[in-house]
Design a protein that fits this description.
With 598 residues, the chain is α+β, with helices and mostly antiparallel strands. Among the domains are: 206 residues, no CATH class; 66 residues, 2-Layer Sandwich (Alpha-Beta Plaits); 77 residues, Alpha-Beta Plaits (2-Layer Sandwich), CATH 3.30.70.1450. The strands form 2 sheets. Strands 3-2-4-1-5 form a 5-stranded antiparallel sheet, with no helix packed on it. Strands 8-7-9-6-10 form a 5-stranded antiparallel sheet. The longest helix is centred in the C-terminal third of the chain and has 27 residues. The protein starts with 9 loop residues before the first helix and ends with a helix.
Length: 598
């Protein structure tokens, strides 16, 4: 490698190569959150003198990043105002009678919406709608949820606003001197990808999508494990607190509620002294319940009299929540997190893939993609809607007070897209003004604006700009491109584009797609120059390759979001996504050649 690096830049280039190689290892190993890896790499490049501070942090002040911040707020305003309720109603309609028709509808409707709205909130909003449709029609969720994710991925390449990766690629391209992207610059390519990918998804559905079961093994089928018991005379629990008693030390039991006469107490209950005649609502296994009865610790409670109207018991409900990619809860167990005290909610069960866990939940380490069944007050559940760590898979938007603003929010969204399209103002200005308009008109509260911004994404994209700057400044991009040029000499342009696309696609399956774009665009631009081709053609190959993630659940966040609810296994995604990947590998380079007349 040293002989490929310009002599005057060897030390800095070697340092850069070591830092980037270490970052790739960390990305692949998933030992640290992606945004932390990006910040670590940027810090090391500054500390070693490869980059000046201004160069390393230049990405945090880029128009692309500011545009993305505004885009998070705009999408939150659209969802919270109920603007997309009609989309939800159409997809959940009983007029859709088969999985194939549902997949066709998802491709036709969700794809174009994903061109302008980030795909993560789209999937979060539609998951409960599609699961409800599956329940009514008796269709296994595994037959339609993976196409939901893939539909948003395909739609995300229709416009510049479709994905944060698009905005990052535009920023890197402009910084390298190849020019930024317009709102619809690659739409003609994206349209071909969307149509071909949608048709393939429908045709492949019967044979390549698995049947992983339906409501017979649903996460909510926990009625046998939620039991109301009575503390009898002589019980060892009388006069003790839950914390001091043997109930939770010896048995796998969660106390969900305590009833004393007409009084009702909710967690935390650890320090509350128990009395004879107290009723406890327990979550436990049948075996644990039998052991408790045999030791005369508790008895099954008789059916209580109905509570008077307006009693707060009606405020309790059960919901499913998803742990998305990037959740800070991943890697910890519920006991260490003090989950119940933190959220005022009790975990009743956990679904990981097609396995449902109901015992020893406090000791299980949480993973991205897990689905938790929670019970608690509606207010506590509603509060989770503002959390980036958990996604509520319920239709709670109707509880929000801003639904009367849906027309206003829709007008603002249309203007945000229309004004830059007509060259009346820059895209970043349009997005910022649209964000202010959302708050000023009441479509979005100021507090909701702050919570809508994904800080982890902002930190990742801002820090990754240092990758591209370092590759270009040290000459590594030129050296790597020169090595590729010698290997691709005499190849047709189509074959060279195919190689770039395929390499990008495979790399993005094992590391962040944003990191893939930041690393490969400088090399692709230099490669194009060396081959005498338009740099944007090869940059588009990287952009589409990083966006077409169909081979694994961890390659793209929306794949992970549907993995648990669909009860998929790892190879289920590969099986359905492999034919799509082959189609895109052959199609995208062809469309790029047509677009640039190569």
């Amino acid at each position: 490698m040293p002989d490929l690096i310009p002599a005057g830049l060897q030390p800095d280039a070697l340092i850069t190569l070591a830092v980037l190689a270490g970052a790739v290892v960390l990305f692949v190993g998933n030992w640290l959150p992606p945004e932390v890896i990006g910040l670590l790499a940027a810090g090391l490049l500054m500390a070693t003198g490869v980059l000046e501070a201004k160069e390393a942090v230049s990405g945090f002040g880029s128009p692309a990043l500011i545009t993305l911040i505004g885009l998070f707020a705009l999408s939150a305003g659209l969802f919270r105002s109920g603007t997309l309720d009609r989309l939800r109603a159409q997809i959940g309609s009983d007029a859709i009678r088969s999985p194939k028709r549902m997949i066709a509808l998802l491709t036709a409707v969700v794809g174009p919406v994903s061109a302008f709205v980030p795909n993560t909130p789209i999937v979060a909003a539609l998951l409960p709608v599609i699961e409800g449709w599956c329940q009514r029609r008796g269709v296994p969720p595994s037959k339609v949820l993976l196409p939901l994710s893939f539909a948003t991925v395909l739609g995300g390449t229709l416009t510049l606003l479709g994905s944060s990766v698009n905005l990052l690629a535009s920023e890197v391209s402009e910084r390298l001197g190849y020019g930024s992207f317009g709102l619809f610059d690659f739409t003609t390519i994206g349209l071909g990808v969307w149509v071909a990918g949608g048709a393939a998804m429908v045709l492949l559905a019967d044979r390549f999508l698995p049947d992983r079961g339906s409501d017979a093994d649903d996460l909510r089928s926990t009625s046998a494990y939620i039991t109301e018991v009575l503390i009898p005379r002589g019980s060892g629990l009388v006069g003790q607190s839950l914390h001091a008693s043997r109930l939770q030390r010896r048995f796998d039991v969660d106390v969900l509620e305590l009833h004393r006469g007409r009084e009702r107490f909710l967690p935390p209950l650890a320090d509350r002294t128990l009395k004879r005649g107290d009723r406890l609502v327990l979550r436990c296994s049948r075996d644990e319940l039998l052991r408790l009865q045999q030791e005369h610790t508790i008895v099954l409670a008789p059916t209580p009299e109905p509570d008077p109207p307006g009693d707060q018991q009606n405020n309790q409900r059960m919901v499913e929540v998803l742990m998305p990619s990037g959740s800070t809860l991943a890697g910890d167990c519920l006991r260490d997190l003090r989950f119940r005290q933190r959220y005022n909610l009790t975990v009743l069960a956990l679904r990981r893939g097609n396995a449902v866990l109901r015992e020893r939940l406090g000791r299980i380490s949480l993973h991205e993609g897990d689905v938790l069944l929670l019970q608690g007050p509606k207010d506590a559940i509603r509060g989770l809607q503002d959390s980036d760590d958990l996604v509520v898979l319920e239709e709670l938007e109707k509880d929000l007070p801003t639904v009367s603003r849906k027309g206003v929010a829709l007008v603002i969204g249309v203007l945000v897209i229309l004004l830059p399209s007509l060259n009346l103002m820059p895209l970043v200005a349009s997005v910022l003004l649209g964000t202010v308009a959302m708050v000023a008109t009441g479509c979005l509260r100021p507090g909701e604006l702050q919570r809508a911004i994904r800080l982890d994404v902002i930190l990742l994209l801002g820090s990754l700009a240092s990758f591209s700057v370092a590759l270009e400044k040290t000459g590594l991009a030129a050296a790597l491109a020169q090595a590729l040029i010698s290997g691709l000499a005499g190849w047709p342009v189509y074959a060279a584009l195919l190689g770039v696309f395929l390499f990008t696609t495979l790399l993005t399956e094992v590391m962040s797609n944003a990191a893939t774009v930041a690393l490969l665009i400088p090399v692709a631009g230099q490669l194009a120059v060396g081959l005498g081709q338009p740099p944007l053609a090869f940059i588009y190959a990287v952009l589409f390759g990083a966006s077409q993630s169909f081979l694994s659940p961890v390659g793209y966040q929306t794949n992970l979001m549907v993995f648990g609810p669909g009860r998929y296994r790892f190879l289920d995604v590969t099986r359905y996504g492999f034919p799509l990947t082959v189609i895109m590998t052959l199609l995208v380079p062809f469309l790029i050649c047509r677009h640039f007349r190569l």
